[in-house]
Amino acid sequence: MKPTLFIAILLCCHAIANTQTISQQAINSSGSTSSAGNITMEYSIGEMTVVQTYSATGFVLTQGLLQPSATINTPLPVTLLYFTGKAMHNYNKLSWATASEINSEHFDLQRSADGRIFETVKLIPAAGNSSVQVNYESTDSLPFPISYYRLKQIDLDGKFKYSSVIVLERSSLQQLRIFPNPALELINIQIPETALSLQLYIYDLSGNTVMNKTVLANGIITVDVAQLPKGMYTLKLIDSKTNKHVLGKFIKG
User: Fold this and answer.
1) Which of 37, 131, 139, 141 lies 20 to 30 Å (CA to CA) from residue 48?
2) Distance between CA 252 and CA 157 in Å, rounded?
3) Structural domain boundaries enclosing 142
4) Structural domain contains residue 136
5) Which residues 6+ apart lie within 8 Å of 208 measured at CB?
């Protein structure tokens, strides 16, 4: 009769104090166990005991066999140091930096009015490969009174991940009063300050200019928006004399 073969495997991770023992049942299973440090394999054939030690760095233990693992010690494609923003006079400024980058393709700067539905407002090329700090900066010229921002970092292979979300509030800046809101055909714009001539711009959510006209200030300006498709719009007035900008939002119903 052939001697029975019994294999017991002890994982000795020198980085920690505890030793883990894997049973024969675990060896025969289809799962795998990754380990750091060394793996000591002790097995018996009859009355003879053999002890062998293997380095576990870059390997996984699968059914009692050491196999290379491509997922161990894999560096992150992009290491983001920070992502911040600041509300300026008539735009929002966004800044971020990376500590290192591997095969990075570009960043999508994304904005939301409610923190749930985001749209891309800018595409910023990435460094590609870098082991030093790289600083980035972009602007949003059509911010909401409260804007939520995040970065979508996209690699050359199409994989992507999101940054954390930051919030910029412009409630302390002067806003236009637009009514009725939502509007079907006409909107009324209450001018916050006395001005003789104003340049009016209306933008859709993608930042496209859908209306551009010169209007005369007379306390309240009435604008026909009946031809605009349903959706949310940003309205900007520029004082042609002082070049001061004021913003407002309205919904076309």
Assistant:
1) 37
2) 40
3) 78-169
4) yes
5) none
